[in-house]
């Protein structure tokens, strides 16, 4: 290949590398600038947005925000939809419709649709693409298109400390207790007691906590060992390096 063609190819590679770095830096700036916080709410005027709470950019569909209250230190991922009411620009009255407690995490692409009241308790973590809704379509009239029939609405209550797996669906009228685990892809309706694990579509209880017997059926894996208090990130990194060195020398 002629020398000038090699030079042109090398120059094109360098230019592409420079442009790639520029694009990534610009996108990082856009994400930081477009994030919604109490100090920088942008166009969104929530009924409350707590200290340390952050909605990542880009946001999903958000409307009815005057009737939405977000607690402190919540993490709302990219493309998360939060809605209160059937459509934008409705007067929903004096009461809050959608409430997130402190420390709630909503994973990327999740939806919380609150046409009537939805409450998510503190320290509840939702994986990506979780769908929580207080509204479901009705099909009472067999002659009318389902999408044109008036939907059914029932409040949803999710207790504190729950873990809701990727792609789970929480249907109208669901009431989850404290520290409930919802398996990925589960479809939950009705009442779920405290300290239960549910899975399936429709979801059913597959494990529960008994004060005398512990978890039933028993857990198959040992409990994780917590990190001792006072251990710093630097110390953890040093231990990780030691383990890598030991593995390399084995």
Verbal overview:
With 250 residues, the chain is of the alpha/beta class. The protein has two helices and 24 strands. The strands form four sheets. The protein has a nine-stranded mixed beta sheet with strand order 2-5-8-11-16-19-22-23-24, with no helix packed on it. A hairpin with a 4-residue loop joins strand 22 and strand 23. The protein is globular, with a radius of gyration of 24 Å. The protein starts with a helix and ends with a helix.
Short description:
The chain is α/β, with parallel strands linked by helices and 250 residues long. Helix content is 20%, strand content 26%. It is built from two helices and 24 strands.
Write the layout of secondary structure elements.
Elements: H1 3-34, E1 48-49, E2 54-55, E3 62-63, E4 68-70, E5 75-76, E6 81-84, E7 98-100, E8 105-106, E9 111-114, E10 118-120, E11 125-126, E12 131-133, E13 135-136, E14 152-153, E15 156-158, E16 163-164, E17 169-170, E18 175-176, E19 181-182, E20 187-188, E21 191-192, E22 196-199, E23 204-210, E24 214-216, H2 233-249
Parallel strand pairs: 1-4, 2-5, 3-6, 4-7, 5-8, 6-9, 7-10, 8-11, 9-12, 10-15, 11-16, 12-17, 15-18, 16-19, 17-20, 18-21, 19-22
Antiparallel strand pairs: 13-14, 22-23, 23-24
């Amino acid at each position: 290949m002629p020398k000038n063609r090699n030079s042109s190819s090398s120059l094109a590679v360098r230019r592409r590398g420079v442009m790639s770095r520029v694009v990534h830096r610009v996108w990082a700036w856009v994400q930081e600038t477009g994030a919604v916080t109490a100090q920088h709410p942008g166009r969104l005027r929530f009924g409350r947005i707590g200290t340390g709470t952050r909605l990542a950019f880009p946001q999903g569909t958000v409307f009815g925000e005057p009737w939405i209250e977000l607690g402190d230190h919540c993490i709302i991922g990219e493309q998360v939809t939060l809605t209160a009411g059937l459509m934008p620009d409705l007067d929903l009255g004096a009461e809050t419709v959608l409430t997130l407690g402190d420390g709630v995490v909503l994973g990327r692409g999740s939806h919380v649709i609150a046409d009537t009241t939805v409450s998510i308790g503190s320290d509840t973590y939702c994986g990506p693409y979780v769908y929580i809704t207080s509204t479901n379509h009705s099909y009472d009239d067999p002659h009318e298109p389902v999408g044109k029939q008036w939907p059914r609405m029932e409040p949803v209550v999710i207790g504190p400390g729950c873990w809701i797996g990727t792609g789970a669906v929480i249907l109208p009228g669901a009431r989850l207790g404290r520290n409930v685990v919802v398996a990925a892809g589960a479809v939950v309706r009705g009442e779920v007691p405290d300290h239960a694990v549910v899975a399936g579509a429709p979801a059913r209880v597959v494990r529960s906590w008994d004060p005398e017997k512990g978890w039933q059926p028993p857990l198959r894996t040992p409990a994780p060992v917590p990190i001792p208090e006072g251990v710093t990130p630097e110390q953890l990194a040093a231990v990780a390096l030691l383990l890598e060195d030991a593995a390399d020398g084995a």
